[in-house]
Every structure is written in structure tokens, then in C-alpha cells.
Write a structure and sequence with these properties.
Strand content: 15-25%
Distance between the termini: 43 Å
Largest sheet: 9 strands, mixed
Shape: globular
Strand order of the largest sheet: 14-13-12-11-7-10-9-8-15
Structural class: alpha/beta
Radius of gyration: 23 Å
Amino acid sequence: MKSEQNGMDRRVFLQSAGMLGAAWATGSRVWGAEGTIKGDDINVALLGAGAQGQVLLNSCLRIPNIRFKAVCDIWESYSLKRVSRLLQKYKHEVNSYVDFEEMLAAEKDLDAVIIATPDFWHARHSIACLKAGLNVYCEKEMSNNLEDAAEMVRTARSTGKLLQIGHQRRSNPRYLYCYEKLIKENSLLGRITTVNGQWNRAAGPDLGWPEKYTIDGPTLSKYGFDSMEQFRNWRWYKGLGGGPMVDLGSHQIDIYNWFLQGRPKTVMASGGTDYYDRATHQWYDTVMAIYEYETAAGPVRATYQTLTTNSCNGYFENFLGDKGTLSISESASRGSVYPEPAAESWAKLVEAGVLKAPTESQPAETDEAALLDVRETLAPPAYEIPVVMEKKYHQPHLENFFDAVRGKATLNCDGEIGYETAVTVLKVNQAVEAACRLKFEKDEFDV
């Protein structure tokens, strides 16, 4: 789509925005990494072939010059077999493994691995793969505990390999555009004072499985699960997952840190298992949190909630400043900016193609309108973001990772960034348990 005013190709901007990090790369971070390769072809293994692994795989199949060589998953009769057959259908000659150590011992021509196993395995898998000489794309959360997450960062540093954490919004062209063009370059929101966001999901039953595909007890136990029920619903169990605050909130709280270019000072939270059976849902099904940030422009208060009992309004992030509001979501249904009375005219930004003009003109003020109750206000016009995301949600982030492996980009979400987000998010569950405001120490975010 081209702007009628200046003919600027928005997709050209998106491509350049996705590579913004490359211009800021330090030589040692990309070219000094042993894992960078000379050609375009990258040999990849998928470690974790469950639901999330298959989501990532579907994106990878749309990316040229990616060759899957191995797949590893403990659900041999179901996920492993299903994904192996799919890859063979797409002409990827893959070897299948149940045990990741066996895979690493046997596969000697791998360049990278995509890790989509349960959270409590992330650190062990990532560290082993980094030490084996592989570049790692690891789904968030890095780990359920900060000690293991920090060790992931230290291992990436010591091995010189790349570690990308799966906060995929960091490579989403719409988010890149909003931060670089609207917030950083044009200060469209003015001074940001407040942030709010949510991820609400409808209530639903726990995941089941076909009886004939039940994993045997010794295999489940070997890999940290007490039962098939726990294996299928590990996200709800303490020690295995981190609950909805980690699964869902982590993506959005990461954007808070990014767009504010700051770290929170405090957090308080309320939550509980208010709906589901606490025996199987050990983590909270409802959480509401309040962060206090100190940014270069001044204090910011940020609220966040995640519900798993009602899907009202879905998921989004709102950034509120004294001159405007940005409402954004990974979903294409949200992506608008709303001016405040103090904002200067945005007509020039529309003319330059930075914003799309409101589709509906606002009604002119009349005598009748002037007689409205003072408590009533007209809704501000919605200026749309002139950027369309036409790829799968995870695809740009994977492309960024593979380009970094080739030495053509720098990572958009390396281990250090992922660690900062882990610190920010994991403390919410602690705040719920403590039932009081918790402070972040300045050095708490650094490895």
C-alpha cells in the first residue's frame, strides 16, 4: 500500500524497520559469533514439537533456505510422528529423537535449534545446545527461575553463540513502526504517564489426549511429569510453568519495558485461583498488577490484567500520554492513535504518510453540541497506523534470528532483553503471594 501523498511504499519501510538493529550492531555481537555462517542455508533442529513448536514450524516453512534436519519430542507416538511426517512432506529429511542429548550427540551439522519445550526445560535445553555449538531460538519464558535464566545469558556470552528469546512483538513491523516512528521520532504521545493492557481468555476445559497415545509412566517421570494430565497442562503447575501471567502477560509486559525504555521500580498484584480446581490449577487464573516506572520523562504507572475466565476485549496495550494515546495489539484489530486536546495538528503527519487520516470525520460543533452536559465528551478521531502485518505472528522474529545467524542482522530480543522481562514478570507472581508492594533493585535486571 502506497501513500497517495508521497508514494512511500510502506512495505519498504517495514523491511528496513525490521533491520534497524543491524545498523546498531557491535561487530563482536554478530560477526564474532562462531555460529554465523557464510551461506544462506541454515540447518535447524526443532526441540519440542507440541502446539507451540508447531506454530513456530509453520512460520519457518514460509522462510526460504531453512532446512530442518532433526525433531525431538518425548511424545513419540503423537507430536513427534506428526511433525516428522509434515516435514517430510515438505522435503525436509529429518531424524526423530525422544531424548535431546541423543540428538545433540548424533547431529553434527546443525547451525541452530528452535526450543519450544515446557518452561522448566528451557534453561537446560538452551545451555546444552549453546555448549554444543548451536545458535538458540528459545520460546519465552526463559526459565521459571532467574538463576537458570542468568546462566543461559552467561552461556551465550561464553560460547559466542546467539540466543534469541521468543518475545515476537520485538520484530513485529507494527510495533517497530509505533516505537521508532510514532514515539521516538515524532513524540506523538507527548509525555507518557500511564500504560494499561490486558489479555483475557474465555474459560475452557483442560487439555486431554487420545487414550491410545498415552505416554508410559517411566518416560513421563524421566522428563519431569507425574501424569499425562500434568504433561498436557503443565502451564498450570508450579515448578513446570508460570501460569497465565507468564504465558500471556510476559509478551505484553515486555512491550511496556521497551516502549517506556525503562525498568519498573515496584509492583503490587492481586490474584488467585478463583474459578478452576486448585489441585490441577496451581497458578492463578486471575491476576491484576500495578507497576511503577521511573522514566527519563518522569513517573509512569502501568496496570495489567490477565483473565482466563472471560474473553472480553481480548488482548491489547494502551500507552497514554498528555498529547495522545496509542492502542496497539498483535491482532490486526487494534492499531490506532488518538489525539488529546493539547496535541498539535497531525495533518502534516497524515500528509507525510506517517498516519492514516480518520475514516469518519468528526461532527462539527453546534449550538446543540455546546449544550451537552459538561461530563459528556466527543470521542477523539482515530488515526490508524499505516502498517499491515501480512506474515504469521512469529515469522518476522524467526527471520531476524536466522538473519543474525547469517551475520546479516543483530538480534531483536537477545538473552539480556529476555532476562529483563523475566525479572519484570516473575515478580508479579511473587507479589500476589506476598500480598504487598515489592521493590526492584537497580542491579536486579542485569546479569
